[in-house]
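stage 2 :: seqdesign
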């Protein structure tokens, strides 16, 4: 019932009415006036149920008849509200509608013969409830609450293993609740997530006990995501998979494997950190092939973050759809031949993420002469935390003409001009671009402008920790390499726009363009109308969207992190709202509707 009410009600539209006397003065009689405060629909439903003395029980025919009369009365009330909405404020009209709707729902569902439905229908209803939970913790709570309603619903819930096979280990060791979910899941494919909590970092012993309990179910784990702070439990996980791969039966059927070490990125077994060599206690072996070197042909998605394996003896890294490696010292990254072998064998690769990790070679900064590997289905590419000389070499190993989502992070402190020059024109179908903590030197600004102009389909930009040095590249006319003529002098000065760029001969505007008096000025990325921003100074952001608006390409919608919008003054926020079509607050990491639409849209040839 509650989920149905939320589905038909916009977020934040519910109200709770309280009455309080207006302040009286000079002998005036205090009058009552309604005062509204915003609450969620779930809160209102809970308050309504708490005030209702009705107790669930088997209904007599007379009670069923009375409840159906109540439904008819509430329905008539709703129609009367609709007929008489003229003259009422929008807020008052919505309050009356929601009250009538919820009252109708409470009466209707008391007469609904849920127990008479076939078991397969009840199972489908319960699955819709469980899998529509907005967050994993709420999903856990809803699954437990389903077993508390009645004996019949408890039987239906526990009898359906698919309600319990997605498990996030958030309870304290020995994980009794989560392991109970594992048992209820039967032999259905398991999707498991195990990670430290803010209050407790799991010890090696706690993790080993959990792994022992999971061993009988390891063969039907479909997805395994591990996030742990300390090396010891990480190595125990790798040893567990290694031993089962060598000696266990039945064979593994894992499709997605992620392991993240969230602790000190500079602490590695056998290496010296701050004058001391680090050797994990109780772990003489720290170098394992994944799954004991056995081929697991079902594996399609692989993520390794801050952890190393024996890459050469891990045959399961073939035919991947996702390859994501992060924060691994160069000496412990896959060798260049092995890296190329992984890419070559993964023709269906759709996501490639290289964050401070990539192919290891004797001289990784030298531009390779190996022929590039074709990745025709690659849709998402992430490049982060590379030294400037290394970036060009990494990208030279593959071609991916149909990438739509490109992320560049932490490219700062060095000259990345040769990298941007190299990728200009290589990814012409980009529709989503992420730039985080990235800088641009004045001498590289012409290269940056040409690179942005080589992505004519760019519609959505995620921007974080950027300054005017790189944002000004979005304000140029790329044909003449000059700031857009509609950009007024005061805005150019406020945004510190470079007026006279030093251009190489290859970037000089052609004589025909300079002499064409009918040519209309262009702005870089004319389709760019949606932004997602965080950690940008409010003044810089408002100047940026204001400048794009002055140049004739206004930003239609901006998603802004809550921590950023809290830094806005009333004046800057008012300017942003007046300049941008919509300003919406979003939680960091939330996927937006526009992202899904752009990534799933049919292929479009760039102009």
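stage 2 :: out
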């Amino acid at each position: 019932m509650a989920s149905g009410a939320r589905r038909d009600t916009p977020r934040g539209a519910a109200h709770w009415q309280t009455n309080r006397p207006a302040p009286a003065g000079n002998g005036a009689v205090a009058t009552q006036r309604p005062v509204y405060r915003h609450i969620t629909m779930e809160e209102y439903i809970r308050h309504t149920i708490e005030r209702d003395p009705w107790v669930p029980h088997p209904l007599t025919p007379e009670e069923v008849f009375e409840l159906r009369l109540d439904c008819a009365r509430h329905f008539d009330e709703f129609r009367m509200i609709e007929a008489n909405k003229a003259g009422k404020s929008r807020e008052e009209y919505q309050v009356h509608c929601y009250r009538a709707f919820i009252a109708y729902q409470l009466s209707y569902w008391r007469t609904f013969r849920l127990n008479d439905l076939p078991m397969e229908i009840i199972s489908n209803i319960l699955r819709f409830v469980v899998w529509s939970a907005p967050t994993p913790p709420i999903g856990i709570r809803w699954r437990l609450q389903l077993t508390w309603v009645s004996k019949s619903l408890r039987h239906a819930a526990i009898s359906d293993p698919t309600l319990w096979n997605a498990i996030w280990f958030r309870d304290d060791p020995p994980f009794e609740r989560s392991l109970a979910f594992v048992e209820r899941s039967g032999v259905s494919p398991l999707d498991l997530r195990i990670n430290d909590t803010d209050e407790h970092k799991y010890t090696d012993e706690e993790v080993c006990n959990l792994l022992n309990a999971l061993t009988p179910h390891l063969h039907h784990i479909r997805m395994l995501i591990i996030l742990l702070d300390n090396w010891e439990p990480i190595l125990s996980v790798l040893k567990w998979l290694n031993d089962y791969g060598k000696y266990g039966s039945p064979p593994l059927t894992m499709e997605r494997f992620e392991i993240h070490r969230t602790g000190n990125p500079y602490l590695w077994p056998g290496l010296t950190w701050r004058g001391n060599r680090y050797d994990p206690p109780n772990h003489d072996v720290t170098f394992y092939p994944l799954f004991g070197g056995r081929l697991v042909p079902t594996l399609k998605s692989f993520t390794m973050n801050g952890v190393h394996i024996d890459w050469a003896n891990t045959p399961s890294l073939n035919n991947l759809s996702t390859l994501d490696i992060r924060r691994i010292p160069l000496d412990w990254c896959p060798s260049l031949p092995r890296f190329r072998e992984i890419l070559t064998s993964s023709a269906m690769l759709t996501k490639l993420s290289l964050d401070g990790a990539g192919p290891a070679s004797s001289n990784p900064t030298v531009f390779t002469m190996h022929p590039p590997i074709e990745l025709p289905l690659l849709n998402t590419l992430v490049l982060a935390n590379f030294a400037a000389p290394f970036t060009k070499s990494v990208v030279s190993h593959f071609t991916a003409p149909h990438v739509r989502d490109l992320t560049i992070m932490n490219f700062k402190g060095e000259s990345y001009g040769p990298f941007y020059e190299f990728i200009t024109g290589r990814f012409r179908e980009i529709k989503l671009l992420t730039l985080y903590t990235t800088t641009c030197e004045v001498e590289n600004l012409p290269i940056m402008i040409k690179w942005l102009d080589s992505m004519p389909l760019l519609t959505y930009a995620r921007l974080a920790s950027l300054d005017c040095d790189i944002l000004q590249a979005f304000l140029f006319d790329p044909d003449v390499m000059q700031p857009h003529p509609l950009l007024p002098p005061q805005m150019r000065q406020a945004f510190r726009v470079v007026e006279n760029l030093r251009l190489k001969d290859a970037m000089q505007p052609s004589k025909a363009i300079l002499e064409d008096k009918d040519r209309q000025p262009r702005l870089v990325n004319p389709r760019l109308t949606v932004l997602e921003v965080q950690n940008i100074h409010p003044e810089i952001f408002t100047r940026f969207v204001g400048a794009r608006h002055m140049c004739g390409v206004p930003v239609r919608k901006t998603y802004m992190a809550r921590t950023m919008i809290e830094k806005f003054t009333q004046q800057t926020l008012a300017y942003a709202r007046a300049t941008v079509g919509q300003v919406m607050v979003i939680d960091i990491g939330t996927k937006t509707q526009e992202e899904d639409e752009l990534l799933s849209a049919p292929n479009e040839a760039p102009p």
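stage 3 :: structure notes
- The CA atoms of residues 186 and 247 lie 23 Å apart.
- The radius of gyration is 30 Å.
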